[in-house]
């Protein structure tokens, strides 16, 4: 808990140290992604033709796999609905994620590697562009990891439902219990996959290496530190969720109530999207500081292990030397 608090304080200090750079260059680069994400949360379920198609396909797939229907399990119906919204929103924001968001993260990592030279220059711009390719590879690998975690949780839920049906225990209470456990398991898998992906992006941005190797190294760095990573991700995710709720309340609700878009709605929507971008930048800084902490701890552990081995070898050598000396002194 104390280490997590120190990391958050260092992140806020680093953000304030280069405040003008992070709130101008980096935040405005994230702004297109933030706007598309907030708009997708509001428009995809209501007006997009993509959402009904995804929802119907998922419902057909779940029915064929033997999952409970929406009428028999309301929780699973809500779970399927949220999954459809997430997939449609991810498809809607994918172009902005692979361009603006990755470039913004590259600019943040570049500024954190050189904290005393945050101003943009031709050399820093070239270095930032060189980070785009490894970050893109890591982003794709992290997305595949998240998809694998979701698929694994669905497979385990399908296996559990098959066991329940094998014992003829298909009562509503039993289905509710199994579905609840499946939702909890899904949340655990998804949270760990998101944490690993976030660490992999920070590792790729700070070291310049991307792809699945960055994901594997992130798993090694997070060994024994997963709870701290989740603790650091909790306040950032709560802040982002609060901003999403603010957008729904101030912009989407006002638009649906009035029936038309007012000029003040556009200005307020841009301000909320900019606020969302600021917290995305801060979340990236927290991930970078956490990576530095894990890297430092791993280096200290390696040094301690090497010193311990050297001390043991030295004690063994001195013991053998003294034993030989005593042997030679015998009459």
Description:
This protein is 88% helix and 0% strand. It contains 10 helices and no strands. It is globular, with a radius of gyration of 26 Å. The chain is mainly α.
List keywords for this structure.
single chain; 331 residues; mainly alpha
Outline the fold blueprint.
Blueprint: H1 2-17, H2 19-47, H3 50-65, H4 74-113, H5 122-130, H6 132-166, H7 172-207, H8 212-221, H9 226-258, H10 263-328
Order of helices and strands: HHHHHHHHHH
Rg estimate, integer Å:
26 Å
The largest pleated sheet is described as: none
* Beta-strand proportion: under 5%
Mean pLDDT over the residues:
79
Could you name the ranges where pLDDT drops below 50 across 5 or more consecutive residues? 311-316, 318-331
Number of domains: 1
Oligomer: single chain
Q: What overall geometry do the principal axes of the alpha carbons give?
A: globular
Q: Helix share of residues? A: over 70%
Distance between the termini: 64 Å
Q: How many strand units?
A: 0
Classification by helices and strands: mainly alpha
Number of helices: 10
């Amino acid at each position: 808990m104390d280490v997590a608090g120190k990391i958050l304080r260092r992140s806020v200090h680093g953000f304030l140290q280069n405040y003008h750079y992070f709130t101008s260059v980096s935040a405005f680069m994230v702004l297109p992604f933030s706007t598309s994400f907030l708009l997708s949360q509001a428009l995809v379920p209501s007006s997009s033709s993509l959402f009904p198609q995804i929802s119907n396909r998922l419902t057909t797939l779940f029915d064929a796999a033997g999952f409970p229907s929406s009428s028999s399990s309301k929780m699973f119906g809500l779970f399927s609905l949220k999954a459809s919204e997430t997939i449609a929103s991810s498809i809607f924001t994918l172009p902005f994620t692979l361009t603006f968001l990755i470039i913004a993260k590259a600019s943040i990592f570049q500024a954190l590697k050189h904290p005393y030279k945050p101003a943009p220059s031709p050399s820093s711009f070239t270095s930032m562009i060189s980070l785009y390719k490894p970050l893109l590879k890591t982003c794709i690998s992290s997305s595949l990891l998240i998809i694998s975690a979701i698929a694994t949780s669905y497979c385990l839920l399908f296996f559990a439902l098959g066991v329940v049906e094998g014992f003829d225990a298909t009562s509503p209470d039993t289905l509710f219990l199994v579905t609840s456990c499946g939702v909890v398991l899904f949340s655990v898998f998804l949270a760990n996959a998101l944490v690993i992906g976030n660490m992999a992006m920070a590792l790729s941005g700070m070291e310049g290496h991307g792809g699945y190797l960055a994901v594997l190294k992130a798993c090694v760095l997070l060994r024994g530190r997963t709870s701290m990573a989740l603790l650091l991700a909790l306040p950032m995710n709560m802040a982002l969720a609060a901003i999403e709720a603010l957008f729904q309340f101030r912009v989407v609700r006002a638009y649906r109530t009035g029936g038309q878009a007012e000029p003040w709605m556009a200005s307020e929507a841009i301000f909320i999207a900019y606020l969302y971008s600021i917290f995305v930048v801060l979340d990236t800084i927290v991930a970078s500081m956490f990576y530095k902490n894990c890297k430092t701890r791993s280096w200290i552990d390696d040094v301690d292990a090497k010193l311990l081995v050297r001390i043991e070898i030295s004690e063994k050598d001195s013991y053998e030397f003294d034993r030989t000396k005593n042997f030679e002194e015998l009459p």
